[in-house]
Amino acid sequence: MSDSGDHRDGHTRLTGRKPALLGEPIVQSIVFILVVSTLFFIFPGIDVWFSGLFYDPSTGFPLSRLDALKALRSIGKWLIIGAVVALVAAPLIKLARPRQPTPVPPRDILFLLSTLAIGPGLVVNLILKEYWGRPRPMMVEIFGGEAPFVTVWRMSDYCLTNCSFVSGEASAAIWLVALAVIAPPNWRRAAMKILFVLAVFLSLNRVAFGRHFLSDILLAWGLTLLVIAVMHRSIVKHPPDWLRNDRLEAWLTRFGMRLRSGPGPLP
Asked: CB neighbours (10 Å) of residue 128?
């Protein structure tokens, strides 16, 4: 009886690491990127097939002309702009009222703005979209264009700037999920579901418009979620002392008081 219990305990200890490891958002994001990349390397036709669902030989990508889908795209842009404005306004409000707490915790502001700048901004738009050169679906021969179809992660010169790999708007759309990460616990689950569903519609909208392949969408998600996971661990879960929320809040208080009192050294 004791041997059996020891065996179960040993088995739990041996296998306990795997679920714990796979439960790490950073590891989950890396695995997602690797699985998606491998899938589309082995079966590149998935991209052509999926985009073909939205293509008509006589009219191109007809959904791109629907006002409702154009409005949906605008909603996504304005949500990002609204979030950035709110995040930038929060510390300014704090500086104007230094004795009051910041409307959004400074640590969360730093987390959200850094993930937006690094993920959709640097990795996706400034590096991948500019230098990988993958033609958009509407540019390839299969869908009425002149360029050949290019698979994922393959650099080419068939597109010179603002290319298909990966999707900037899908990256920005999935970034909205980060807003749910810092939401109050009782709202977090509902917020995450709503924002994820919205991200799916905003992202697939780009496929329907003939602007991105499915792999562009999925890899934009994976890369952005990886950035979010890394920055959440570095800034929110295990920040260095100087990034602790109480220290950031205290610094803003001192700086706000200094601005109100006029020139002179910070206290």
From this structure: 25
